[in-house]
């Protein structure tokens, strides 16, 4: 029986992981395999979804989560050989990936027969101005979408959703536009009612030369950080950052990890699990435009977060 694929795309910090988290937490009896392709040396996304840093993690509701290490088609082949094999596969792309290239790979006749691409979901941050859609990468992400989910409407000003819908319509994007409060999207929109329904035929367009726009800088420490000093560091780094995310233990709350996220100029902290043995107490990935932030500058700013003994 073919296993339908849901491809989740969207720009850095749009809320893709929140959507995948919600799908896994509300599987409603479906066996879902989530494939996470993080942008960076530290696979923070996999940790946020499954509480593990690598490999395949089995969840209590029958779902699994695995990190994408290497070739996507090889990863799909591994998932399809599992017993029992998943009923659905969700692929979360990197925020700087052009989904047209991934769609083109999934149109391979062998993959199409075993794991047909059923739906492409593009998550859009409603707090960003509509002018953000002038970005070529964001337009590419919209262009292949069947469904566009507007996220973070609770953080946006009144009318932001209407303005974003109008901007999407102006681009003549044929997708259905829905609201995704806290990552919640009706499952009937994402998963087929019957497994034998024929997948949509797609034309991803001509292959375009890739343009490296972003780079990842990772910082880690075996020591806990000072929360006030971390706030000062993020304030200094914010003008140069496209995205940041990570886990850390603070001096103020020892024995408890904090989950840190920075996107669209906003930083958030939520409590995490207890520190895992054998891993650094602080691990943060920073994503910036090429050449904007040096490793030396980042290390100097972040090392100041560690209080003197």
Automatic annotation (TrEMBL):
Keyword tags: Chaperone, Hydrolase, Nucleotide-binding
Domain CobW C-terminal as annotated: residue spans: 214-306
N-terminal signal peptide: none
Catalytic reactions of this protein: GTP + H2O = GDP + phosphate + H(+)
PANTHER family per UniProt: COBW DOMAIN-CONTAINING PROTEIN, COBW-RELATED
Function, as annotated: Zinc chaperone that directly transfers zinc cofactor to target proteins, thereby activating them. Zinc is transferred from the CXCC motif in the GTPase domain to the zinc binding site in target proteins in a process requiring GTP hydrolysis.
Name the UniProt record assigns to this protein: GTPase
Source species of the chain: Bradyrhizobium forestalis
């Amino acid at each position: 029986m073919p296993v339908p694929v849901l491809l989740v795309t969207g720009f850095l910090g749009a809320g893709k992981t929140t959507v995948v988290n919600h799908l896994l937490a509300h599987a409603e009896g479906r066996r879902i395999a989530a494939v996470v392709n993080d942008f960076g040396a530290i696979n923070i996304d996999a940790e946020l979804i499954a509480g593990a840093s690598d490999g395949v993690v089995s969840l209590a509701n029958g779902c699994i989560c695995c990190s994408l290490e290497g070739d996507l088609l090889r990863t799909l082949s591994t998932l399809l050989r599992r017993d029992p094999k998943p009923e659905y596969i969700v692929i979360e792309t990197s925020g700087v990936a052009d989904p047209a290239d991934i769609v083109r790979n999934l149109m391979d006749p062998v993959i199409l027969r075993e794991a047909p691409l059923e739906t492409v979901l593009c998550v859009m941050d409603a707090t960003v101005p509509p002018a953000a859609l002038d970005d070529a990468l964001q337009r590419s992400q919209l262009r292949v979408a069947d469904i566009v989910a507007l996220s973070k409407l609770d953080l946006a000003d009144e009318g932001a959703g209407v303005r974003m819908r109008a901007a999407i319509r102006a681009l003549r994007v044929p997708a259905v536009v829905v609201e995704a409060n806290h990552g919640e999207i009706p499952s009937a929109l994402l998963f087929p009612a019957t497994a034998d329904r024929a997948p949509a035929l797609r034309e991803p367009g001509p292959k375009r030369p890739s343009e490296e726009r972003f780079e990842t800088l990772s910082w880690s420490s075996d020591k806990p950080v000072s929360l006030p000093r971390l706030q000062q560091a993020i304030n200094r780094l914010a003008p140069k950052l496209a995205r940041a995310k990570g886990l850390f233990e603070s001096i103020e709350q020892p024995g408890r990890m904090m989950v840190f996220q920075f996107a669209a100029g906003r930083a958030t902290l939520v409590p995490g699990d207890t520190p895992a043995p054998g891993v650094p107490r602080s691990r943060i990935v920073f994503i910036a435009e090429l050449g904007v932030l040096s490793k030396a500058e980042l290390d100097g700013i972040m090392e100041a977060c560690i209080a003197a003994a």
